[in-house]
Amino acid sequence: MRKKKPRPSERLCRAEWGWFSLPFSDSEFLPYPLKELFRVFAEARKAFPRNTVVSTDAGNTGGWAVQQWLALEPYNYICAGGFNSMGWAASAIMGAKLAVPQRTCVCICGDGSFMMVPHVIATAVEYSIPVIWLVLNDYSWGAIKGLQGAYLGGREYATSFRIHKTGQSYNPDFAAWARSCGAEGEQIKDPADLAPAMERAVKSGKPYLLDVIVDAEEGLPLTSNWEMPPYPIGPPVFTGE
Ligand SMILES: Cc1ncc(C[n+]2csc(CCOP(=O)(O)OP(=O)(O)O)c2C)c(N)n1
Ligand SMILES: [Mg+2]
């Protein structure tokens, strides 16, 4: 009989994770654009209260959020797990807010995921559900664009959002859309504006969308692996052992 490998203790896993994450512990030392991307999570952790409920979605944004968001108390983090369905987090966060109205509730999702269910803002306004959507906007289905890079020899097919005649990056103005629904919305291009905007969102008591423009060409390292035949599954980046 094969001997079962003992599971590493939780404390050991945490220590390993701390070591793995050390290079990201201070965004000041990170190269651009990594620095900017990491800062979103660091600023969010500082700006949102300790018991904030966070929901995360699919894509690179979901992968980064699941790794970088530090849930400090139980029952404060929700995601669709392996289903990984885009749009889930933007909707589910309203359910969370109805369940725990006294807590700040924040959805962290990508622009592609938010575009699956942009009508959530109208619902939140109709029923006065003051949640916050933190949309990391890289003008693409970034995760799929990355996979295409590997599968198609660097060729990208329809995963960047562009005006096709000019090649210019395109997305609707999400913040304007939020305001037109009767919610609040802000677009953030300068990372220095992140913290004050997040604080305004918490204080507003209204549904609030923060459209954060990110340059995610070079993202944070993801520890998860996708099974994508015929390619072999890559070795785990982080094992916690
Ligand atoms: C409903 C649904 N359709 C398709 C997919 C496959 N898929 C996984 S990630 C992704 C792109 C996600 O884009 P975005 O939300 O902008 O995140 P990014 O990777 O750019 O950070 C797609 C299409 C999915 N997970 N769910
Ligand atoms: Mg995206």
What is the global morphology? globular
Order of helices and strands: HHEHEHEHHEHEEHEHE
**Architecture of the domain at 31-70 and 87-213 in CATH?**
3-Layer(aba) Sandwich
Helical content stands at 25-40%
Distinct compounds present = thiamine diphosphate, magnesium ion
What do we call the CATH topology of the domain at 31-70 and 87-213?
Rossmann fold
Structural write-up:
It is a single chain. The chain has helices spanning 10-21, 34-47, 59-68, 88-99, 111-114, 120-126, 142-151, 174-181, 194-204, and strands spanning 53-56, 77-79, 105-110, 132-137, 162-163, 168-169, 184-188, 208-213. Strand 1 (53-56), helix 3 and strand 2 (77-79) form a beta-alpha-beta unit. It has a domain at 31-70 and 87-213: 3-Layer(aba) Sandwich (Rossmann fold). Strands 2-1-3-4-8-7 form a 6-stranded parallel beta sheet, sandwiched between helices. A two-stranded antiparallel ribbon has the order 5-6. With 241 residues, it is of the alpha/beta class. The model has no long low-confidence stretch (mean pLDDT 88). The radius of gyration is 19 Å and the shape is globular. The chain starts with 9 loop residues before the first helix and ends in a 28-residue tail after the last strand. Bound molecules: thiamine diphosphate and magnesium ion. The site of magnesium ion (MG) has 8 residues, from helix 5.
Short note summarizing the structure:
With 241 residues, the chain is α/β, with parallel strands linked by helices.
